[in-house]
Each structure stands twice: as C-alpha cells, then as structure tokens.
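Table S2 (continued). Query chain:
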Amino acid sequence: MNDHDAIVGGGLHGSLAGQTVVVIGGSSGIGFETARLARSQGADLILVGRNPERLQQVARELGARSSAAFDVIDFDRLGRFFDELPNQVDHIMVTSGGPYYARLADIDFSRARINFDASFWARLHIARCAIGKVRAGGTLLFIGGTGGRRAAAGTLTAALTAAIPALTKALALELAPIRVNLIAPGFVDTPLSASLLGDQLNARREQLQRTLPIGRVVGPADIAALALHLMTNTAITGATCDIDGGQQLVDGS
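Corresponding output:
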C-alpha cells in the first residue's frame, strides 16, 4: 500500500508523500506555512495568490508544481483554474477572506460586499468546483476565526463567523466522501494581523503572552500543524476546530 492508498483508504497517516495540495492564499501567513509544511512531508503543491511577484517567489522557494495569480472573487477565473487542473488533487485549503470589523453605522457597503464575496461566496464556488477534482477521502479545508463570536466584533464579522461552521457541516454531507473541515483561529501573528493592528501590534502580542493559558502567541506554524492533521486524519469531517491558545477562556482577550 502506498501513501495515497493509506490516507484515502481510512485512518491516520502522517505523510502527504505523493499527494497534491492546493493552497488558495498560499503566498504568505497561514497559507504559506501550511504549504511549506506540506512540501516538507512530500506533497506536490499548487499555489494560488493575488500578488503575482510574491506568489512566483514563494512557488520557486517551495518547489511548487504550479501557481496561479488571481483574486478568488473573480469567479470566472476561479472556475477556469479548476477546469485547467490536469489531474485530481487530494486537498484544497482556502485562506481567503480576512475580517472586516465595523459597526453597522460605519459599514462601507462596497467594502463589505467584497469581504462577503471572499469570505462566503468564494467558498461556495470552490466547494462546487471541488466536485470531481478532489479525490475521495481528500479534504476541503477552510480557515475562519473565533473573533466574531463576540457581539462587539461587528455585524458582518459576527454573521460570517456564525455562517461558516454551518456551511462546513452542510458541505461535509453534500460533498462526501470529500471531507470538509474548518479551522477557527483566534489571534495569529501573521502579516495580516500586523496590517490590521498597525502600531498596536506589539502591545497586543505582549498582552496575549501575559494572559493566554499557553503563555505565548499563536503563530502560523501552529495552524499549519493542525491543517496537516486534518488532511491526514480521515475520520474528521464537518468539524470546526478552534485553535486560539485559550484566548476565548480569558476575559478581555
């Protein structure tokens, strides 16, 4: 039995050797770290990102099989990307769609619509494209978040945070035997977090180091390790897996 047969046949297998992993949003942060770890375990990589120069550099660095630069809310281009895949793949990870924090009175509806397209509609499009493209027992893996579980996070973020776990469960039934799971991080020390927090980043890091039960800040490598576990453990589907270092347990975090 080869590595591919071991994972698709059932049970836990620790290697991605001989498998193909598509990372949408794979040129930085969580996506990059997951791609790097998957490659270290022998996976072939197909990377998607918006920035052509950065994506090309990362693809060379990781030895990716191929890469494609486009925005996932260009749904026609997204469909062509899947149509042009020469073979089936084993796993698709989707990191697109960051949070948009705004009170109802302050919402920029044009920006909110773009955020909703990236965070919700893009996932539906990708899920439909995955049919026939992901091998049985493979994975469609979403990255979400936990911040919107607090009402103070804002209307749109709270709504999306509630919607994506429900979407994950429904898709796990509709797409079976493809497995569908959601990783829900809290704060993760990534370039996206840096862009959102600006000069408040270091203060946030220090606060979390003091207050989190794990005594440190969660990083992209932590999320990547969980992502690979969900790819290789074929007993898990329809799950929302929180990974926040205990952030939800600490008041004011």
